[in-house]
Write a structure and sequence with these properties.
This protein has a domain at 251-287 and 294-447. The protein contains 17 helices and eight strands. The chain has helices spanning 2-6, 22-28, 32-40, 66-82, 97-104, 111-123, 139-146, 149-156, 161-164, 176-192, 198-221, 236-280, 303-312, 318-328, 334-352, 357-361, 394-408, and strands at residues 285-286, 295-296, 363-367, 370-374, 379-381, 390-392, 435-438, 445-447. The strands form three sheets. Strands 6-5-7-8 form a four-stranded antiparallel beta sheet. It has a two-stranded antiparallel sheet with strand order 1-2. The chain has a two-stranded antiparallel sheet with strand order 3-4. InterPro entries: Ankyrin_rpt-contain_sf.
């Protein structure tokens, strides 16, 4: 390249399609050395849309390996340092670079790279999150239409739920969720036909369909409204609504692991430090006043663990639990409020109202004729007319929230309980107004006030 430039080659390739200009080719190939050389020689950046994602018109078969993504991100950061306005100058054909990324990502880049790339654009002035093209498509609509799951999720985290449920100007029911369902349905139908070769069908099976399902689940996690898809539809609309309901069952099933991860994240500091402290306490020297020689502290069975647990309670992190819930349930919803409240109450009870982690994890017990582990039961259902209150654990509360959510959207199957299967769903039946806990000191029922 140096020899060509020294020999008079035009580094800007004036008059050529910007995609074929040296700077674009170097960027699309993630060639940091070539980009550096062109910048040193004063290459023109304006008018080249230099920091757009490489697409199929740039370099065929862009090698999206982790190393190439790191190099590409480094190039974009260098270009932004050179000229921060590059993040805000749209191509004449698109309203902005977020929209452009929605068109070109298509699952060909990692989620981590897309998040960092779009964060870089946003931090440097990109503001086209809600800008629409001449067809009424905003970046989220384009991500759905193009099958770009990671841009879709990033956008969902940066717009309000109204944007997630926004219909097209001339078709209010054509929401992102409806378009995503239509795309998944069309890909399923293409696999059933005979008009494509096996290589294309393989791409549909391994990339396009998984991407479409991921987008549907992301939209649902972000608060997309299934009720906007008619429950009495027939033909393709009915088929597409069923596809969405199936994916929502998957989203609801994921809440079990999310709940446990949220609780573990909040209690991890307390567990770690109390375990260390429980081992150190018996070794701590003390002087009882009569014997001048220090001697080890004396503890009864599990007494050191209990003291260490109480001290460790100062270290538990309730915000970590809320953050884990919010990471999964992106949009504001009744389900998210119920989940956050349930997990917050469990974490507080586990950290401050128990004698140790053994009590949190629970012991084995006979439940309905089967020996199972019964974790901390810190919830209660108010007894009727002075009757006995029924104790519950966080698993029962979470499953109740999932069952209610499934019922409200017509999801009739696929939600897996995951514990005490021999009891069916009977142990998770209660009204939310009845839910509370038993005050440890007064033994009185206290309502949690969750609707």
């Amino acid at each position: 390249m140096t020899a060509l430039i020294n020999g008079g080659a035009d580094i800007n390739a004036a008059g050529a399609d910007y995609r074929k200009r040296p700077i674009r080719v170097a960027i699309a190939a993630a060639n940091e050395r070539a980009v550096g050389l062109l910048l040193q020689r004063g290459v023109q950046l304006q008018g080249t849309v230099a920091i757009r994602l490489p697409g199929r018109f740039d370099v065929r078969g862009f090698p999206t390996t982790p190393q190439c993504e790191l190099q590409l991100l480094s190039i974009y950061q260098r270009l932004i340092r050179q000229d921060s306005t590059l993040a805000t100058i749209p191509d004449e054909d698109v309203p902005g670079l977020v929209y452009d990324a929605a068109d070109w990502e298509r699952g060909c880049f990692s989620q981590s790279f897309i998040n960092q790339y779009l964060d870089l654009l946003l931090a440097n002035g990109a503001d086209d999150l809600r800008t629409v093209d001449r067809h009424g498509f905003a970046p989220l609509d384009m991500a759905v239409a193009a099958g770009s799951p990671w841009v879709a999720e990033w956008v969902c985290r940066h717009v309000e739920s109204e944007e997630v449920n926004r219909g097209m100007p001339n078709s209010p029911i054509r929401t992102p969720l409806a378009m995503a369902a239509s795309r998944l349905d069309s890909r399923n139908r293409l696999l059933e036909g005979n008009g494509f070769g096996e290589d294309i069908k393989e791409d549909i099976r391994t990339r396009q369909i998984p991407n479409a399902k991921t987008i549907i689940r992301t939209l649902l996690r972000a608060g997309a409204d299934i009720s906007s898809m008619s429950a009495v539809a027939i033909g393709a609309p009915r088929r597409q609504r069923h596809l969405v309901q199936t994916e929502y069952a998957t989203v609801l099933n994921g809440l079990s692991n999310v709940t446990m991860s949220a609780i573990n994240a909040a209690l991890a500091p307390q567990r770690d430090h109390s375990m260390i402290l429980a081992r150190l306490l018996p070794l701590a020297p003390h002087n009882d006043g009569r014997d001048p020689a220090p001697s080890p502290l004396s503890f009864g069975p599990h007494e050191a663990e209990g003291i260490a647990w109480k001290i460790g309670a100062f270290l538990h992190e309730p915000p970590a639990a809320a953050a884990a819930i919010d990471e999964y349930l992106i949009g504001h919803s009744q389900l998210r409020r119920r989940m956050r409240t349930a997990v917050a109450h469990f974490v507080k009870s586990a950290a401050t109202r128990t004698s140790g982690n053994r009590e949190v994890v629970g012991d084995m017990a006979n439940v309905g004729g089967v020996m199972v582990r019964v974790p901390l039961q810190c919830f209660a259902v108010r007894g009727q007319q002075g009757g006995q209150h029924r104790l519950l654990g966080v698993r029962e509360v979470v499953h109740k929230a999932r069952l209610d959510e499934a019922a409200s959207h017509g999801v009739t199957g696929g939600v897996v309980k995951g514990f005490n299967e021999h009891l069916g769903d009977g142990d998770c039946v209660f009204e939310w107004q009845q839910r509370g806990y038993i005050h440890k000191a007064t033994r009185l029922f206290v309502a949690l006030g969750i609707e």
